[in-house]
Amino acid sequence: MIVAEKVHSFPVKRAPLFKINDPFLEERKITLFIKREDLIHPYIFGNKWHKLKYNLVEAEKQSQKTLLTFGGAFSNHIYAASAAGKLFGFKTIGIIRGEEHLPLNPVISFARQNGMIINYISRRDYRRKTENDLIEKLHRVYGSFYLLPEGGSNQYAVKGCSEIPASIDVKYDYIAAAIGTGGTAAGLIAGVPDGVKVLGFPVLKGAGFLEENMLKLLQGFADGKPDNYEIFFDYHFGGYAKSSDKLFSFITEIEKKIKFLPDRIYFGKMLYGIYDLIGKGHFPENKTIIALNSASVS
Description:
The protein has 298 residues and is an alpha/beta fold. It folds into 2 domains: 2-42 and 154-293, Rossmann fold (3-Layer(aba) Sandwich), CATH 3.40.50; 65-144, 3-Layer(aba) Sandwich (Rossmann fold), CATH 3.40.50.1100. Helices cover 39% and strands 18% of the residues. The chain has 12 helices and 10 strands. The strands form 2 sheets. The protein has a 6-stranded mixed beta sheet with strand order 1-2-10-7-8-9, sandwiched between helices. Strands 5-4-3-6 form a 4-stranded parallel beta sheet. Strand 7, helix 9 (183-191) and strand 8 form a beta-alpha-beta unit. Helix 1 packs antiparallel against helix 3, helix 3 crosses helix 8 (155-161) and helix 8 (155-161) crosses helix 9 (183-191). The chain is globular, with a radius of gyration of 19 Å. The two termini are 37 Å apart. The relative contact order is 0.15.
């Protein structure tokens, strides 16, 4: 199968690990590494490659030529899905939440350059993105397509993300991930070695539903409810893409220590949460944490 062969040989880099040298961490006897998944590919970076690769294989198995997916106007998933479609020979359709704004932002502009058809729908209709009547309506408009859920999170995404821990070559006790739709965290829960705990940091306000979503995604990967994860719901800073002076101040300071500017939607919030928990003594001494940077940098 052509796509499967391309996926197997696709030139993604091994995500490097960077240790944060910080007296704050040394005083508390915590070792913190950043795993730079954002550096594995210029277009299909971070968790997006892990989420997409087995979906691309499955689309080919189903003899589908078109990928249809959902996302916001600044979605990393839309950006990556459009690139994957072009690189692997699929037509792509992006169903975008909200109205068109001109000039186009870099994400939508890039997606269109890759040939993605962009269709804006109301926020009310967007909330129905998993309902059969909306999907059937889209089939009537666009014909046959392979449906990629928002964020790419499904069983194939979990399979791809479950492979991330195998690429870590240091001993560690925790691995942390920002949570948007839950696919990456579910994959980590399925793939971490025994004794390692996954730390999840939702970027959405009122995200209690995410744990249920994660457990659904884990069906077939875990027997019963796993006990190797913990979710922290208090670091969303008001909701998706929301921020505060406290977060901006933290990001400004942490940039000097990690040598790149973390995004404020995903990784910046998660890193703030990790530092806050360390300061509160949440982690025992002499523990190692891996912080997964799976989004684009600012």
